[in-house]
């Protein structure tokens, strides 16, 4: 936080106090969830894997029909992120959220495909990715299913499925919750991609199953293959088979690798997961 105790954001390239952002009731993200976003881990004032985040949000803009060239270049965006972090004095580590939304106008049919963007930052105390000491206890949310489609690989403002899954997690005193697709297969968790070890092989749902095309997912798959670990991308996983896993972990761009200790009364190890985590930390240092 700055010395004046004011938190700043970056709205369409301008650093302003967060309470000065002018968004009206005509905002399409507010009205229709007409937006896409990225969450980016920053160390010091340097965003991690920004090029991959930038590429994904450009693909998301294309998929939603927004004009991709209305977003600044990756180099410009990197400078805006650095300025935002410096202004807020988040010098250890931070979480930056990049939200892109279609400009005002129209009802369901947009009046324009030009977009605005908003960068927000919150501090993180840890100076690197840290694997959780206490394993996550997961449940399975089955009240709704995620449809595999042209938007399912991306993070969009239409996030009620994840909200409902988070409420299920809260009601059941869980620390993680898995999400199923419309075929009833487990494909991801609320904010992470899913991996599991079985007989020394690593498995993860394929993007075609409906899971988010995660930045950390790609990094973990590439790292595992470099370590000569066989990786199989599956059309999701049944509850029966996830319960038979030797180890389970989830990944995202903010927390890195987080291991799962249990589903209901079942318990899992984290030996191979921890080895993979240590190799990942070594690869980025």
TrEMBL record:
Pathway: Amino-acid biosynthesis; L-valine biosynthesis; L-valine from pyruvate: step 4/4; Amino-acid biosynthesis; L-leucine biosynthesis; L-leucine from 3-methyl-2-oxobutanoate: step 4/4; Amino-acid biosynthesis; L-isoleucine biosynthesis; L-isoleucine from 2-oxobutanoate: step 4/4. The keyword Zinc-finger does not apply. It catalyses: L-isoleucine + 2-oxoglutarate = (S)-3-methyl-2-oxopentanoate + L-glutamate; L-leucine + 2-oxoglutarate = 4-methyl-2-oxopentanoate + L-glutamate; L-valine + 2-oxoglutarate = 3-methyl-2-oxobutanoate + L-glutamate. One of its GO terms (biological process) is carboxylic acid biosynthetic process. InterPro entries: Aminotrans_IV (IPR001544), Aminotrans_IV_CS (IPR018300), Aminotransferase-like (IPR036038), BCAT-like_C (IPR043132), BCAT-like_N (IPR043131), Class-IV_PLP-Dep_Aminotrnsfr (IPR050571). Its cofactor is pyridoxal 5'-phosphate. Transmembrane segments: none annotated. GO terms for molecular function: branched-chain-amino-acid transaminase activity. Its EC number is 2.6.1.42. Belongs to the class-IV pyridoxal-phosphate-dependent aminotransferase family. It comes from Breznakibacter xylanolyticus. Keywords: Aminotransferase, Pyridoxal phosphate, Transferase. This is branched-chain-amino-acid transaminase. CDD domains: PLPDE_IV (cd00449). The keyword Acyltransferase does not apply.
